[in-house]
């Protein structure tokens, strides 16, 4: 690091490099940027730069690169994996993207929009809606996460089943590379076979290859009709059978299929005011599913018929359709309240795993049996995007447990669950990324060929290793 050793001189130099971009250095103003949303990590930083133009960001990165100063990009700071938190050295610069928040263009005829990284996901959705279009990325944190972070982590969420993950929703990217050069490829094209897909590489790179500053996103026509149902199912196998039946009946109209165990619904009802269980709590497993259409069509009837058939074969035990938008939102508030309810309920261990949908029943059976046997004082709260094979296979200590006990148990539980995931051909991070939380897990479950290739790409794009050091892999 060749920042002057005198802290005052370092800051003066950094301030000059930031030019017109504010540089926060006061203890109180910097504090919110130094820890993550789950309070797993707490770091220190030289300061927090808040550029609002690509040119400012480019100057800052060029300055940091010339001096080997580590840079930590931060969007809405909603990472589950500490991906946006600086280390404890106090030598890294946090770069907040919140001021780069313009909607640059919307082209309804081309079904595309170009937005800056610091736009809240909710603002992107709203701008699309105002133009008579629909942007389908949907997460519980839409009101606080930023699209740049969504892209950097290739976020998933509630509509992946139909629309794919953030990478699938992106046509073009603008990013500042570590040496300050600007990668400009904001083409609004659905067909573009011109060499390596570098935008796909920058998406999901968690800020380790450069900083995404803007993106051209795919839009769809506005949604005209939805049909939403809450189901009780006898077990996970039945849920997966119902998924296939709904696909058969509704085709691509099926956009969400969330699996919820009783424990998750109970937690939400207990900890999120105004929440209630639509079908009571006498079953072990529930499903929240939704169909939507770009045209006016009788989706409620379609869903009702499919569910009546599933009830007659015993694959669905009970079902209720949202009778109006209020009920629909209440179903979703229950689902989206689960992570908050879990936090309020006390200590826990979280996982973000995926396996092929066909392997979900066996995986859940084996992993649940392991948890029951090995963690008798824990409660399994395994819920999530079953339609994509992605579950948040979490264990909570609901009767209170001391932090030391949880800290001892955590690695044992993580190892057992992730080994089972690997045995079923799954992933240890389906949608939350690696950050700093899963660096060791990535190393354990990824082949030397893959890791070596990733490191080669990292070295090629960021030879000085300034970009988000310690995220995805330990600095080499
Ligand atoms: C969710 O699906 O609710 C989120 O990915 C958060 C989580 O519970 O891990
Ligand atoms: Zn999720």
Summarize this, please?
The protein has 476 residues and is α+β, with helices and mostly antiparallel strands.
Helix content: 25-40%
Our Rg estimate from Cα atoms comes to 23 Å
Structural class: alpha+beta
Lateral arrangement of strands in the main beta sheet: 5-6-10-8-9
Largest sheet: 5 strands, antiparallel
Distance between the termini: 16 Å
The overall strand count is 19
Total helical segments: 16
Write down the overall mean pLDDT.
96
Question: Proportion of β residues?
Answer: 15-25%
Shape summary: globular
* Model regions low in confidence, pLDDT < 50 over at least 5 residues: none
The hetero compounds bound to this protein are: D-malate, zinc ion
Topology, element by element:
Elements: H1 7-18, E1 23-24, H2 27-30, E2 47-49, H3 54-67, E3 71-74, E4 93-96, E5 103-107, E6 112-116, H4 121-130, E7 133-134, H5 147-152, H6 160-163, E8 170-176, E9 182-185, H7 198-202, E10 211-218, E11 220-221, E12 225-233, H8 236-250, E13 254-261, H9 262-271, E14 285-293, H10 299-312, E15 318-321, H11 325-336, H12 338-345, E16 348-349, E17 353-354, H13 360-374, E18 379-385, E19 390-396, H14 403-423, H15 439-445, H16 448-461
Parallel strand pairs: 2-4, 3-4
Antiparallel strand pairs: 1-2, 5-6, 6-10, 7-11, 8-9, 8-10, 12-14, 12-15, 13-14, 16-19, 17-19, 18-19
Helix pairs in contact: 8-10, 9-12, 13-14
The structure holds D-malate and zinc ion.
Characterize the structure shown.
- The chain is an alpha+beta fold.
- The two termini are 16 Å apart.
- The protein is built from 16 helices and 19 strands.
- Helix content is 36%, strand content 20%.
